[in-house]
Amino acid sequence: MKKNIWIILFLFALTASVGAQSLDEIVERHVKALGGKDAMSKVTSMTVEQTIEVMGTEAPSVTTILFGKGARTEMEVMGNKIIQVITDSGGWTINPMMGGTEPQPMPEDQYKMNRDQIFPGDALVNYQQKGNKLELVGREQVGSVNAYKLKLTDPSNREMFLYLDPDSWQIIQTVTKGDMMGQSVDITITMSDFRKTDAGLTMPFSTFMDFGGQFSMAQKITKVAFNQPVDTTIFKVK
Known about the structure:
- This protein has helices at 2-34, 37-41, 108-114; strands at 45-54, 57-66, 70-77, 80-87, 91-94, 104-105, 133-142, 145-153, 159-164, 171-180, 183-196, 202-211, 215-226.
- It is α+β, with helices and mostly antiparallel strands.
């Protein structure tokens, strides 16, 4: 009986060890596929120009990121300028289409969903230093890809599922809970058209966001520039 217990404990420990090793390997390969931590460390800022399509209407958008400090997105929609700012301590928005011409504090759940954009790479890069926990759930089909499914839990217990392509080691989809007009919905973000940039970093040039089947948005990058000077006052409420 005692011998059987030791065998069971040994097999359990072995399985846990293999699972942890597999998770570490997946994260390591993913970070390498992004370009590696050395390339990321050399990037201080990024400016992304893109087009955003919502309900058949296209709008130009520019996002300026000073890594570790803040990100500012400006979008022109039907003559209205929408501004969203994320910093290392919070966020704010100006949205005339919602009747507001003055800066408004960003809701906490929206801030938590977007704050990772001020860091180079993505949610898996240095996830432990950010206080996040990561678990390898298994495999799941995403389109034609039998993807690795990872579960990331942040310090506030907000969960996100990430799906990695085992060939490219890129994140091709994420799913998390969000608020849509007072209702909790699954926000699914699908990434494609991965390209290597001049900075040596690989990133998706096409992104499709689905908000619980009620609303969707498509984004296509048209231009990206790295290490341009950034005036930090653009992140401050004026």
